[in-house]
Amino acid sequence: MKKINVGLLITNDGVPLHQAGVIVDRNGRVMEICNWLQDADVEAEVVVPGFVNAHTHLELSYLKGVFLEGKKGMTAFIREMIRQRGMVDDPVQQEAMLKADEEMFSEGIVAVGDISNTLASAEVKSKSKIYYHTFVELSGLDPEKAKDITSRGIDMVKTFREKYNLPASLSPHAPYSVSAALMNSLLSSLYYDDPLTIHVQESEDELQFCKLSSGPLFDYFSSAGFHLNDVLVNGTRPMDALLKLLPRSNRCQLVHNTFTTEDEILAALHTHPQLFWCLCIHANQMITGHHPPAELLYKHHAMVTVGTDSLASNHRLSIVRELTAIHSAWPHIPFADLIKWSSFNGAKLLGIDHLCGSVRTGMKPGLLHLKGISADNPRFSEHVSVERLC
Q: Do 18 and 68 fall within a single domain?
């Protein structure tokens, strides 16, 4: 048993608590939240529940440092990504994923929504201290191959679930990389409680591709010989098409949203009650140099989540670093809201908010001491670090 005194406790279950005590058992389960303890084992200034990294690509960890220049645009990034894939041996890839997993644990991450195109990450995930939900990502523009692609995806989901005892579900990659036939096949294969995620409106290249059938991404796909006759989104903005397709019964996460407008946010919130909006601000900065509309999402009370994207598009898998960037760009967004975005909302997306994401009796949220933050005026900065209390 451990007794912890906290200057500021963010529980995500009511208002922040000042001068509070928390008692946890040896497994990190919260036994009691109480007043200041006279016999505390630990004293901490600011304590929050463990972070949920709502979007990353663990299997791309071997690409760390490859795209150092950045801001060359989405098309250049995709072109290089396709060129680099499969250029390292499996032991190198496994070692990179293991290090990335260890980094996330040390950064206070307790759960991850991870994009996978293969089974390469399964072994690392199965032995991790972190909870992983794997989004088996499907892509393909040839409508004739849609059923085969979906079938292979279903087989991967079953393998993650049955062989490795890991939760998994199908997800489409992006509006420009999925045919209408594949999207329909994928959605018809979902269970009602499967979460799904999709990259959307990440770049101007994507918008040109979908709305105008032009631009550098369209030209690259055309020259590479991709099938472009059955593209999911044709002649409109991606959000316009997706809101007509995404199931309202499932928890759906839109990732990046860099070029999403206020009108689109309002339309989505009106029609889709289980929609989550993932911010990966460092990846956006590295690839396009643009910010996502965090202020608009906060203004309209959207369910925001926080992700790191992969080490191909980010230097670190640190939620604190992401929150620091968000707080720097939008300092008026309250500290407690940022914590909710980075813990409770991600847990809700993954369907594990009964296990983590908030500090409540009976739960094992993974308490984090945020060092370098004042309880009186909590703010994220480059001086903040994470200490895991349990």
A: no
